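User: Predict the structure for this protein chain, please.
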Amino acid sequence: MKKNPIRIKKCDCGGDIYELNTQLGTMYQCKSCGEMYR
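Assistant: Here is the predicted structure, written as structure tokens:
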């Protein structure tokens, strides 16, 4: 089964940022440039 990430906002590069649930908690990553956010 493939998970569909939740689209929450736009990155500075213009890409979509998705929510990722990790062992460290909730992180956010841009699909275009790979930038990580907390």
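The radius of gyration is 10 Å.
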